[in-house]
Amino acid sequence: MDYELVRRAFRKQFSRDPQTPALFRVPGRVNLIGEHTDYNGLPVLPVALQKEVVVAVTSRDDMRVIMSNVDPRYEPREFVADENIEAAPAGDWSNYCRAAVTGLWQYVSRRAGGRAQVKCMNVMTHGDIPVAAGLSSSSALVVACALAFLHANGISVGNGKGRFDRIELAEILARAEQYVGTRGGGMDQTVALCARKGAALKIDFFPIRVAEVPLPRGYKFVVCNSMVRAEKSAHQRELYNRGPQNCHAAAAVLAEEFGAEANRPIRRLGDLMPQNRGLSGEVWPRIERTLSREAPALVPFVRHVLQEGERVEKAVEALEAGNMQIFGTLMIESHKSLRDDYGVSCPELDALVNVALEAGAMGSRLTGAGFGGCTVSLVAETDVSEFVSAVQSRYYGDYLARHRPYLAASPHASAESVIICEPSAGAGTVAM
Ligand code: NG1
Questions:
Q1: In the chain, which end has fewer C-beta atoms inside a 10 angstrom radius, N or C?
Q2: What Cα–Cα distance (Å) separates residue 296 from each residue in 246, 288, 300?
Q3: Residues in CB range of 119: below 8 A, 6 or more apart
């Protein structure tokens, strides 16, 4: 990332230097396992990527937020900040900043001593996370705008008195991002804020809790872009939201029978498995029987969610034991379940997973919401370069060129196709 470019662009646009620290950086993420579990109260296991969004900021006294982007595809935007900010049309990039500002408004105005005291901001952003690829570029932008808004108001993030706790901020921003119309969970905002270099982050929800899980040496996670855009501003937003809706409906069906017995309310599917375990016993057949009677179409969705929650627990144990063979097998099972039960894969992602496994990956699966975007594959470090060339020729050179020539010809097809993941730290400042 060329940080100096962002500082220069800021100076050119706003005729002054950004406030110190000059820049905030927020990473994208790749989820290793645990898909469509976060909004169900079951765990996830992502890592932060070396790809990031950066933002430079100065404060303003006139209630306006003025946004620019180094990339000319994102035209400058401006809006008046308030507690309830009207959204721009779906897909407009300013919505991610509107989400952050509106989500933090109450907190910031309380800290500032009233609405009239709130500072707004000029921001210049830039990013190298592939967009619409399931690598969380949108949440990185939300978090970046949030850090900028807090900074403009003299609030810093971290541990210690007067600072905004990272987990508390993740809770607020997970809700805030729903402003753009998706009913997602809190994985992306939490890992963007709390990740540790060299480690995966196990995240539990309701409330958010995090645990660092070191990654054993000798292996790499390789991210491959199917080139099918997983854009959540249009039709795919409806597809995505169907997941949370179905799970909510299933939890409502199961709440009565299982809630009374467990002596606690079943608000979401994760409440059926308080330790994220237990499907192996008699519980699943009973859940299946109840659902088959009341709402049979929901059986596969629930099966995916509950089994995926268990897979995350097993994956953490496998990492701790250094047993990457088991980790790989869990990834393969996760992909099958997302494909067959949750129904969020697509032919290109399935082809890419098959190519990866043929090319020597120990495990491979779609990552993120699905409907396109990327896969993540576990590869022994010594095999990485051979793996990458095999995928380049078999997927990008052969499969895409033959079956989806218009995707193979995309200008991003080579630059953004393969990322060898360097597990990175969560959001921070850039010393310049
Ligand atoms: P991506 O892949 O970035 O669209 C979405 C949700 C996550 C999680 C995953 C599926 C948002 C911002 N992100 O991520 O919370 O539910 O899908 O595991 O809604």
A1: C
A2: 11, 8, 9
A3: 59, 60, 61, 112, 152, 153
Flag whether pLDDT at 61 surpasses 80: yes
For 267-417, where are the alpha helices, taking DSSP H only?
Answer: 284-294, 299-321, 324-337, 347-358, 384-391, 401-403, 405-408
Residue having the nearest C-alpha atom to atom 17 of ligand 1: 369
Q: Is the pLDDT of residue 317 over 90?
A: yes
Q: Residue 422 — φ and ψ, nearest 5°? A: -110, 100
Instruction: Tokens for 307, please give them.
Output: 């089994």
What is the CA(240)–ligand 1 centre distance, in A? 9
CA 425, distance to chain mean position in Å, is 15
Which pair of tokens denotes residue 327?
């980790």
- Residue 124 or 91, more confident: 124
* Residue to substitute in 178, 188, 241, 308 for testing ligand 1 pocket (most ligand atoms within 8 angstroms of CB): 188
User: Can you say whether the dihedral through the CA atoms of 348, 423, 23, 142 is positive or negative?
Assistant: positive
401 vs 360, residue with greater confidence: 360
Q: What is the 185 CA–ligand 1 centroid distance (Å)?
A: 7
Ligand 1 atom nearest to CA at 35: 18
420 CB neighbour count, 10 Å cutoff: 15
User: 326: exposed, middle or buried (C-beta count within 10 Å: 0-12, 13-18, 19+)?
Assistant: middle
CA–CA gap between residue 404 and residue 398 (Å, rounded): 10
DSSP letters of 234-266?
Answer: SHHHHHHHHHHHHHHHHHHHHHHHHHHHHTS--
Q: Beta-carbon neighbour count of residue 382 at 10 Å?
A: 11
How many angstroms does the Cα of residue 35 sit away from the middle of ligand 1? Answer: 8
- DSSP class per residue in 352-363: HHHHHHHTT-SE
CA atoms within 13 A on the CB side of 274: 7
Indicate if 62 belongs to the active site: no
Residue among 257, 288, 254 nearest 270 (CA): 254
| 282 pLDDT above the threshold of 80 | no
Q: Which residues line ligand 1 (CB under 6 A)?
A: 35-36, 38-39, 134, 136, 139, 177, 182, 184-185, 187-188, 232, 368-369
Contact assessment for residue 227 and residue 404, using Cβ atoms and an 8 Å cutoff: yes
Candidate from 136, 268, 308, 334 with most ligand 1 atoms within 8 A of CB, to mutate: 136
